[in-house]
Design brief:
Belongs to the gamma-glutamyl phosphate reductase family. Pathway: Amino-acid biosynthesis; L-proline biosynthesis; L-glutamate 5-semialdehyde from L-glutamate: step 2/2. It comes from Enterococcus gallinarum. The protein is 43% helix and 19% strand. It has 414 residues and is α/β, with parallel strands linked by helices. The protein folds into two domains: 239 residues, Aldehyde Dehydrogenase, Chain A, domain 1 (3-Layer(aba) Sandwich), CATH 3.40.605; 147 residues, 3-Layer(aba) Sandwich (Aldehyde Dehydrogenase, Chain A, domain 2). The strands form four sheets. A seven-stranded parallel beta sheet has the order 10-9-11-8-7-12-13, with helices on both faces. Strands 5-4-3-6 form a four-stranded parallel beta sheet, sandwiched between helices. A three-stranded antiparallel beta sheet has the order 1-2-16, with no helix packed on it.
Length: 414
Amino acid sequence: MIDLMQLGKQAKKSAASLSLLTATEKNHLLSAMADTLERNRSRILTENKKDLAAAKKNALNPTLIDRLELTDERIKEMATGIREIVQLSDPLGIVDKMWRNSDNLLIGKQRVPLGVVGIIYEARPNVTTDAAGLCFKSGNAVILRGGKEAFYSNQILVNLLQETLSANGYSPYSIQFVDDTSYAVADEMMRLNKYLDVLIPRGGANLIRRVKETATVPVIETGTGNNHIFIDKDAQLPMAVDIVVNAKTQRPSVCNAIETILVHKSCAAEFLPLLEKELKNKVELRVDTNARNYLINAQPATEEDWQTEFLDYILAIKVVDSIDEAIAHINHYNTKHSEAIVTDNYFASQKFLQEVDAAAVYVNASTRFTDGFVFGFGAEIGISTQKLHARGPMGLEALTSTKYIIYGEGQIRK
């Protein structure tokens, strides 16, 4: 069994030295990591094929296989993601504000690393490079524990990143890999309080629930996306069709895809046949009684359907009487990830923005844009669906904390 305590000690020591690197030094190393990935595409693809063969043998869901598969283009995208991080401003050392108090102390609030970040994730090798790059730039050591589905892919990626650090004279222990995918080791990692400052799970609802219930290390909850689009009575219906089709079908296996649409009763008779025609039987429709009146191929929705992140070509549909009913449904069933309204009514849009409880709320746009890269953060560590300590796509700043720095001139408190 892997010695997590040893990994933790190595990470803690590396974090202390990593936090002292200059932005120029970190950027040089990150650029070298990106170059290494591109130079070693054949090694990466060879290991990825092992994972794909096992996935097909075990009849893994096709949408999960899509997340798992690497290609020359996807490896290039991983390298590009790291280079994007190079272009971002280093948050460390930034003093957000300074002021003098009544004792004439000069007080500042400065950005510092979290320390050692643990990440537990599933069948997405790109998380390995995204997380490693962001943690490195923000001065954090990282311990990565991927799922068994992507074991060989994750291992070769971390090995290449570590080789780059060693080749440039730096400790490889700022990026480490847990090469044991057992539940026992995962549980041990969730309780590694002495060495981990924060734990970030990335994956499906079951993984995130298990981490929340088991971990004693502070957790940032990310990922699960039971997302909705509300088609308001004042929506432009062709626009609404385009947005729904994109949000559901462009890549259904990701957390910013939608799972349910809510349609105002006044436009349901016109909108739903248009949508069904555009979907061309590609998506299974699970609908309430009112929606069935306007659709040819649909099956009744169950209570479970409203609660489910399908991550597949399945869409739940409900006809609602009002925007208030839509908002109530969303706030009851959503996972606080991404929600959208399609409307030309300004007051409806503002009501939706203010009353819907989610990390990202859209007016007249697809939820597929909830992404750290799209938001300008470079690669993302995840999309936080909680309110502490970060919310929404997590870039560099979300991987930092603050400390107060205080300058005095001999003051004592009386």
